[in-house]
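Pilot study result, target chain (78 residues):
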Amino acid sequence: MKPFFRKTVFLSIAFLLLPIFSFSQCAMCRAALMTGDEQNTAEGINHGITYLMIIPYVLAAITAFAIYHVIKKELKSE
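Predicted structure:
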């Protein structure tokens, strides 16, 4: 197994396991929304949730592109 591919697999697994350790964020968001009366607080929380939702998709796309690039390069060398 090539070193680049090995690192890519390791990082992919690490990023897949990362959400398991971050479940406490939901309780913090709920507490912030219940104590804040301003619209800005809720809007900020919603933007934060959107950013947190987009990041895994971007990482998956980058990983898929890197794997595609490595496979394409190996097929050309053969």
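One observation from the pilot: The mean pLDDT is 78. A full batch analysis is planned for the follow-on phase.
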